[in-house]
Structure formats: structure tokens, C-alpha cells
Automatic annotation (TrEMBL):
It holds the Pfam family Cyclin_D1_bind. Residues 335-346 have a biased composition (Low complexity). Belongs to the FBXO31 family. Keywords: Ubl conjugation pathway. GO terms for biological process: protein ubiquitination; SCF-dependent proteasomal ubiquitin-dependent protein catabolic process. This is F-box domain-containing protein. The keyword Lipid biosynthesis does not apply. One of its GO terms (cellular component) is SCF ubiquitin ligase complex. The lineage of its organism: Eukaryota, Metazoa, Chordata, Craniata, Vertebrata. It comes from the Eukaryota. Pathway: Protein modification; protein ubiquitination. Residues 21-42, 335-374 are annotated as: Disordered. It comes from Myotis lucifugus. Residues 48-94 form the F-box domain.
Length: 474
């Protein structure tokens, strides 16, 4: 209602002072040809105007621009507001802006529903829309939950066996929530080999939701019991397998980022194309794998640029390995010195929380900027002799190279392995990495799909998402 205060001087209304020009005593005396008396004019109170006095058409526009969660309390303010908030155009705009609902009015009239009823159906599921990471016992995948007509559909990433990293990624329906039911909302499972669709039980909270299905023929994580305070519960069906989905935000961006952060796909293992997320953190960039069976994190040191020398460096694998090895040895020495300093500070009781040096996203990078990358003249790129790649359709020119470390933990192995190598920036939508020890090249291409409800509310919230991904993978 704070916004309504600034509307008081819009238009005329009952209770407002007259708009006729009031003459001061001096002006009246001058008009009568008399000497002007001493000025002793006192301004009256400011005009008063109520929001209720505005035309209905203007109130409809105002109310339609407010968050839908504020409208029920606004309807209790007075009878006029209560009647206005039954106008369906208000709820139509809220459904579109908040949930991406695009169903037309004719289809709703055929089933006897209004936009106001649709909003009431969608509102309990506002926290489920967006991107999620499904973590099963041995495999992780990506799930996109969207409003799809008169349903809410969870689309699961479908790994492709082709090796081309360009273009949109494929999704298949995993579950569906029907909004047309007049009584209880039905959740249908679209997965499994026995029968489809079939009922699925769901529990929802802001940062995760869990589904439980009577079919046991899909991959599940370890069965767990959820507390009652998790929130909304649909169709109580105990003893079925649980699937847990965790919230996934896309990284915030900053104009100084080397390229625009986001989701990229690359070919990594026998499951086909995998999905990873590029984010920037001051002196470092990070590529975090979010699908597949292994834990993989690529760390790029933006302060340790490798000079390309017109691309000749790629033609000599031994020279490239020597340059990277020198940088790697220096990095290890600095990390050891930092650990010793932190240990000494602990013993002295003067420890400072320096951490890894990771900076919150959406902050200026300390390394090369995107403007500098765009100004760099492309140089020829070829795979060094002896380096293999399953994707041969890579760009033939690149702009920048940096030292990086690929850390991989394979399924069944307790400790990660680190692979120093070269991060190669090709253009805004492609980058690559050469693992020198494995003599292997990975090409990353930007995911072309568009997603809704994926903006992180804060840089800290995104860092928490990264932390959760690592805890899931460990």
C-alpha cells in the first residue's frame, strides 16, 4: 500500500481542495485599487485524496502490476477493492508475469475456470518452477519445471549420444501436475517401464522437493523420511521410492566477465553429452559439472594467462606441457605457503578467513575482462599432435588461453585426481580444455535453451547452490 500514497495527487477526487486559483490579500487589494496590506498569508493544509477515489480502470491497472501475493490483503481494505479484484484481467496478467501462463480465455471458459482460479491453483507451486538437479544413487540429471498449458510439467534432461555440442538440449516429461481438478490436485508420474502415467506423491519446499512413486523401475536415491515441516503434501503414499530435486540457479553475470556465464554442454563419458555450469569468481572462473556419474570441477586461473604466440604454441605439445607445468609448480608452491601461513595463524590465534580466494559472482573479475577478450585478434587453433577428442567440430581460431586444473572424482574412487591443462576461449559461446596428462581435449558449447525462474536472488544464494552441488557429488 506504500505505492498508493504517491497516487494522491492524481486527478480530481472527493475531499480534494478546489482547484480554483485562490487570490492572496495583496492581489485582492490591487484589484480594488487599494494599497496592499502587509502580507500575512498562511498556507492551508495540503490537498487530501484517497486511492478509493481513482477511476476503476486506473485501479485495475495498478492492482494488475502488484504481486499476486499482495492482492488478497488488498481485497480486505474495502468493498470497492474487493469487487475490483474479481476482474479477471488482473489475474490474467499475474498468471503470465509470475508463472508464464499462456492459456487463452476461450480455453478456460470451456472448462469453467477463471484466471483468478488458475492463479489460486498455481500459487502453491510457485517454489517448484525453475531448474533443479535430480540426484539419484549413481547419476545426476537436470530437470526444468514449467507451466505447460493447464499443467505444471517437469522436463528431465535427456542425454544425447551425438557428439555435437551446438544447439538446444533435449528434455522428456518426468511428471505432470494437473491444474484442472476441482478438488485435490493430481500428480502424475510419466516415467517407468510398467505403466504410465501413474500417481506420484510430492512434497515441496523452497530449495528442494521430493517425489515418491509406487513404481520401482526408475533410478532412485536412498530412501529417506521427510519431516512434516517440509510443507505441501499431495496424495499420501508411504513405502514408495523417493526422488529428491535440489534448486539450481544460473550464475549472476557482470559486464567484466570474460564471457557470459551459464550452462554449457560437452561430451565426457559413455552417457553422451553432459551439462556443466560456467561461473566467475574474481581471480577464478569455475566450470561445475551438474549431470552424469562423476564429480568434475574445472578451475580457471584468470590471472595466469598463457601467451599464444600466433598459435604456434599448440603445434608443439612438449612446449605447451612445459609452460603449463611451470605454472602448476608455482601454483602448488603458493598454495603450500598459504596453508603454512594459515596454520601459523591458527597457532598464534590470529587466523583470518581468507578462504580459496573465491569471490561472489556478479562482482568485477580481477583477471582479463570480456572487453579485452573481444578486442583480442583471433589466432589459429589446432589440436596438438597426440591430443585426442571425440568432438572434431571445434572452432579453428581462439582468442585467449589460461592455466587451469580439472579435478575429477570417478565413481567408486574416494579421492579426486587433478589434471593441469589449458583453458581455451574460442568465442562467446565456446571454450575448451586440454588435459595434458590424459592428452584429451573437451569442447564446451553454450546451451541454447531459454529457462524461466532461474535468476539467483543474491550472489550468496548462488554460492550456496554450488556448495549443495558439491555436497551431493561427494
Amino acid at each position: 500500500m506504500e505505492a498508493s500514497a504517491c497516487l494522491c495527487d492524481v486527478g480530481s477526487s472527493r475531499g480534494c481542495w478546489s482547484r480554483q486559483k485562490r487570490q492572496r490579500p495583496a492581489e485582492t487589494a490591487a484589484a480594488d485599487g487599494k494599497p496592499a496590506p502587509a502580507e500575512n498569508y498562511v498556507e492551508g493544509p495540503p490537498p487530501h485524496c484517497s486511492l478509493q477515489d481513482l477511476p476503476v480502470e486506473m485501479l485495475v491497472k495498478i492492482f494488475a502490476s502488484l504481486p499476486g501475493s499482495d492482492l488478497p490483503s488488498l481485497a480486505q481494505a474495502c468493498t470497492k477493492f474487493h469487487h475490483i479484484l474479481h476482474i479477471d484481467s488482473i489475474w490474467r496478467r499475474r498468471c503470465r508475469e509470475e508463472f508464464g501462463f499462456r492459456e487463452n480465455l476461450q480455453n478456460l471458459e470451456m472448462i469453467g475456470m477463471s484466471y483468478r482460479e488458475v492463479y489460486a491453483k498455481l500459487f502453491p507451486y510457485r517454489n517448484i518452477l525453475g531448474l533443479w538437479q535430480l540426484n539419484t544413487e549413481h547419476y545426476r540429471t537436470l530437470v526444468n519445471v514449467v507451466v505447460d498449458g493447464l499443467c505444471i510439467t517437469g522436463w528431465t534432461y535427456r542425454p544425447s549420444l551425438h557428439t555435437h555440442v551446438g544447439g538446444p538440449i533435449d528434455f522428456k516429461p518426468s511428471f505432470r501436475i494437473r491444474l484442472t481438478e476441482r478438488t485435490s490436485t493430481m500428480v502424475e508420474c510419466m516415467e517407468g517401464l510398467d505403466s504410465r502415467p501413474h500417481n506420484r506423491h510430492m512434497q515441496i519446499r523452497k530449495d528442494r522437493f521430493t517425489t515418491q512413486c509406487k513404481n520401482t523401475d526408475h533410478r532412485t536415491d536412498s530412501p529417506t523420511r521427510l519431516r512434516e515441516e517440509w510443507g505441501l503434501v499431495l496424495e499420501d503414499r508411504p513405502w514408495y521410492d523417493w526422488l529428491t530435486y535440489r534448486r539450481l540457479y544460473l550464475p549472476p553475470s557482470h559486464p567484466d566477465d570474460l564471457i557470459r556465464p551459464g550452462l554449457f554442454q560437452y561430451y565426457y563419458d559413455v552417457f553422451g553429452l553432459m551439462i556443466a555450469m560456467l561461473s566467475f569468481h574474481g581471480k577464478y572462473a569455475r566450470v561445475t559439472k551438474i549431470t552424469g556419474i562423476s564429480k568434475k570441477t574445472l578451475e580457471i586461473h584468470l590471472m595466469r594467462r598463457i601467451q599464444l604466440r600466433d598459435g604456434e604454441l599448440f603445434r608443439n605439445f612438449n612446449e605447451l606441457s612445459r609452460v603449463v607445468q611451470e605454472i602448476d609448480e608455482q601454483v602448488i608452491r603458493e598454495q603450500q605457503q598459504q596453508q603454512q601461513q594459515q596454520q601459523q595463524q591458527q597457532e598464534d590465534g590470529t587466523e583470518e578467513n581468507q578462504g580459496h580466494g573465491w569471490q561472489s559472482p556478479a562482482q568485477p573479475s580481477d583477471g582479463e575482462s570480456g572487453a579485452a577478450a573481444s578486442e583480442e585478434q583471433p589466432v589459429p587453433f589446432v589440436l596438438p599432435v597426440g591430443v585426442h577428442s571425440i568432438d572434431q567440430n571445434y572452432p579453428r581460431t581462439c582468442r585467449m588461453c589460461f592455466y587451469g586444473v580439472d579435478t575429477v572424482t570417478l565413481l567408486g574412487f574416494p579421492y579426486p585426481r587433478r589434471f593441469p591443462g589449458v583453458f581455451i576461449l574460442f568465442d562467446e559461446n565456446h571454450f575448451g580444455f586440454i588435459q595434458l596428462e590424459a592428452k584429451y581435449f573437451f569442447l564446451y558449447g553454450r546451451v541454447q535453451n531459454t529457462f524461466q525462474n532461474v535468476e539467483s536472488p543474491s550472489p550468496q544464494a548462488f554460492l550456496e547452490v554450488l556448495k549443495n552441488i558439491q555436497s551431493i557429488q561427494s
